[in-house]
Amino acid sequence: MNLDTVLAKKEEFEKKIRIIVNGREVEMIIPTTERLLDTLRNRLGLTSVKEGCSSGECGACTIILDGKAVCSCLLHTVQVDGSSIVTLEGLADNGKLHPLQEAFIKAGAVQCGYCTPGMILTAKALLDKNPKPTEEEIIEAISGNLCRCTGYVKIIEAIKIASGAAK
Fold first, then answer.
1. Which of 9, 22, 23, 29 is nearest to 81 (CA)?
2. Taking the model in full, what pTM does it have?
Protein backbone atom coordinates (compact mmCIF):
# COMPACT_ATOMS: atom_id res chain seq x y z
CA MET A 1 0.00 0.00 0.00
CA ASN A 2 1.50 3.33 -1.02
CA LEU A 3 1.32 6.63 0.85
CA ASP A 4 -1.43 8.07 -1.37
CA THR A 5 -3.64 5.05 -0.63
CA VAL A 6 -3.02 5.36 3.10
CA LEU A 7 -3.86 9.09 3.06
CA ALA A 8 -7.00 8.47 1.00
CA LYS A 9 -8.11 5.81 3.49
CA LYS A 10 -7.46 8.19 6.38
CA GLU A 11 -9.70 10.82 4.74
CA GLU A 12 -12.54 8.29 4.69
CA PHE A 13 -12.39 8.05 8.48
CA GLU A 14 -11.63 11.64 9.45
CA LYS A 15 -13.07 14.96 8.42
CA LYS A 16 -12.27 18.58 9.08
CA ILE A 17 -15.29 20.42 10.44
CA ARG A 18 -16.12 23.94 11.52
CA ILE A 19 -18.85 24.67 14.07
CA ILE A 20 -19.80 27.56 16.31
CA VAL A 21 -20.07 26.48 19.93
CA ASN A 22 -21.40 28.97 22.46
CA GLY A 23 -20.54 31.81 20.10
CA ARG A 24 -16.97 30.64 19.45
CA GLU A 25 -15.85 29.20 16.11
CA VAL A 26 -14.18 25.82 16.44
CA GLU A 27 -12.34 23.98 13.69
CA MET A 28 -11.07 20.44 14.14
CA ILE A 29 -10.37 17.14 12.46
CA ILE A 30 -12.48 14.38 13.92
CA PRO A 31 -13.29 10.73 13.24
CA THR A 32 -16.40 10.48 11.06
CA THR A 33 -17.99 8.11 13.59
CA GLU A 34 -17.56 10.38 16.63
CA ARG A 35 -20.80 11.39 18.32
CA LEU A 36 -21.48 15.06 18.91
CA LEU A 37 -21.93 14.28 22.62
CA ASP A 38 -18.35 12.96 22.78
CA THR A 39 -16.93 15.89 20.84
CA LEU A 40 -18.59 18.41 23.15
CA ARG A 41 -17.63 16.63 26.38
CA ASN A 42 -14.23 15.13 25.58
CA ARG A 43 -12.71 17.50 23.03
CA LEU A 44 -14.26 20.79 24.13
CA GLY A 45 -14.69 20.11 27.86
CA LEU A 46 -18.38 21.04 27.92
CA THR A 47 -19.42 18.73 30.73
CA SER A 48 -22.96 20.06 31.09
CA VAL A 49 -23.74 17.75 28.16
CA LYS A 50 -24.45 14.50 29.98
CA GLU A 51 -24.58 10.93 28.72
CA GLY A 52 -27.67 9.14 29.97
CA CYS A 53 -29.30 6.55 27.76
CA SER A 54 -27.25 6.94 24.54
CA SER A 55 -30.46 6.42 22.55
CA GLY A 56 -32.20 9.81 22.58
CA GLU A 57 -34.74 8.83 25.21
CA CYS A 58 -33.64 10.74 28.33
CA GLY A 59 -32.66 14.24 27.16
CA ALA A 60 -29.56 14.46 29.38
CA CYS A 61 -27.42 15.29 26.34
CA THR A 62 -29.76 17.99 24.98
CA ILE A 63 -28.15 20.94 23.25
CA ILE A 64 -29.52 23.69 21.05
CA LEU A 65 -28.49 23.09 17.45
CA ASP A 66 -29.33 25.91 15.06
CA GLY A 67 -32.14 27.01 17.38
CA LYS A 68 -33.65 23.59 18.02
CA ALA A 69 -33.29 21.36 21.09
CA VAL A 70 -31.75 18.03 20.03
CA CYS A 71 -30.12 15.02 21.65
CA SER A 72 -26.40 15.16 20.92
CA CYS A 73 -26.00 11.40 21.45
CA LEU A 74 -27.94 10.75 18.22
CA LEU A 75 -25.72 12.83 15.93
CA HIS A 76 -22.28 12.32 14.50
CA THR A 77 -20.26 15.51 14.74
CA VAL A 78 -19.67 15.52 10.98
CA GLN A 79 -23.44 15.93 10.54
CA VAL A 80 -23.36 19.34 12.20
CA ASP A 81 -20.51 20.85 10.18
CA GLY A 82 -21.29 24.55 9.72
CA SER A 83 -23.88 24.63 12.49
CA SER A 84 -24.26 26.69 15.64
CA ILE A 85 -24.48 24.91 18.99
CA VAL A 86 -25.41 26.20 22.44
CA THR A 87 -24.72 24.26 25.63
CA LEU A 88 -25.52 25.28 29.19
CA GLU A 89 -22.02 26.78 29.46
CA GLY A 90 -23.04 29.27 26.75
CA LEU A 91 -26.07 30.69 28.56
CA ALA A 92 -24.49 32.80 31.29
CA ASP A 93 -23.41 36.26 30.18
CA ASN A 94 -20.25 37.61 31.83
CA GLY A 95 -20.94 35.57 34.94
CA LYS A 96 -24.60 36.58 35.12
CA LEU A 97 -26.95 33.61 35.02
CA HIS A 98 -29.50 33.33 32.23
CA PRO A 99 -33.09 34.04 33.40
CA LEU A 100 -33.91 30.33 32.98
CA GLN A 101 -31.05 29.36 35.24
CA GLU A 102 -32.23 31.89 37.82
CA ALA A 103 -35.81 30.60 37.52
CA PHE A 104 -34.70 27.00 38.09
CA ILE A 105 -32.93 28.09 41.27
CA LYS A 106 -35.87 30.21 42.44
CA ALA A 107 -38.37 27.39 41.88
CA GLY A 108 -36.15 24.76 43.50
CA ALA A 109 -36.13 22.81 40.23
CA VAL A 110 -32.52 21.69 40.62
CA GLN A 111 -32.11 18.59 42.71
CA CYS A 112 -29.44 16.08 41.69
CA GLY A 113 -28.77 18.30 38.66
CA TYR A 114 -28.20 15.57 36.10
CA CYS A 115 -31.19 16.48 33.93
CA THR A 116 -30.98 20.21 34.58
CA PRO A 117 -28.78 21.28 31.63
CA GLY A 118 -30.99 19.41 29.16
CA MET A 119 -34.17 20.72 30.77
CA ILE A 120 -32.93 24.32 30.70
CA LEU A 121 -31.82 24.09 27.06
CA THR A 122 -35.10 22.47 26.05
CA ALA A 123 -36.95 25.25 27.87
CA LYS A 124 -34.79 27.90 26.17
CA ALA A 125 -35.56 26.50 22.73
CA LEU A 126 -39.27 26.55 23.63
CA LEU A 127 -39.22 30.10 24.99
CA ASP A 128 -37.19 31.37 22.04
CA LYS A 129 -39.94 30.05 19.76
CA ASN A 130 -42.90 30.71 22.07
CA PRO A 131 -42.19 33.26 24.84
CA LYS A 132 -45.56 32.70 26.56
CA PRO A 133 -46.27 28.96 26.41
CA THR A 134 -49.20 27.36 28.16
CA GLU A 135 -48.56 24.73 30.81
CA GLU A 136 -49.57 22.08 28.28
CA GLU A 137 -47.01 23.43 25.78
CA ILE A 138 -44.33 23.36 28.47
CA ILE A 139 -45.19 19.76 29.36
CA GLU A 140 -45.08 18.76 25.70
CA ALA A 141 -41.74 20.52 25.16
CA ILE A 142 -40.00 18.79 28.08
CA SER A 143 -41.61 15.39 27.45
CA GLY A 144 -38.34 14.08 26.00
CA ASN A 145 -36.37 14.99 29.12
CA LEU A 146 -36.46 12.58 32.04
CA CYS A 147 -36.09 13.64 35.65
CA ARG A 148 -36.08 11.14 38.49
CA CYS A 149 -35.95 13.65 41.35
CA THR A 150 -38.49 16.44 41.02
CA GLY A 151 -41.64 14.97 39.57
CA TYR A 152 -41.54 17.85 37.05
CA VAL A 153 -43.76 20.23 39.08
CA LYS A 154 -40.87 22.52 40.03
CA ILE A 155 -39.37 22.32 36.55
CA ILE A 156 -42.66 23.40 34.98
CA GLU A 157 -42.93 26.19 37.57
CA ALA A 158 -39.40 27.37 36.73
CA ILE A 159 -40.24 27.58 33.03
CA LYS A 160 -43.41 29.51 33.87
CA ILE A 161 -41.35 31.91 36.00
CA ALA A 162 -38.90 32.45 33.15
CA SER A 163 -41.75 33.12 30.75
CA GLY A 164 -43.38 35.55 33.17
CA ALA A 165 -46.48 33.36 33.45
CA ALA A 166 -45.99 32.28 37.08
CA LYS A 167 -48.46 33.44 39.68
1. 29
2. 0.90
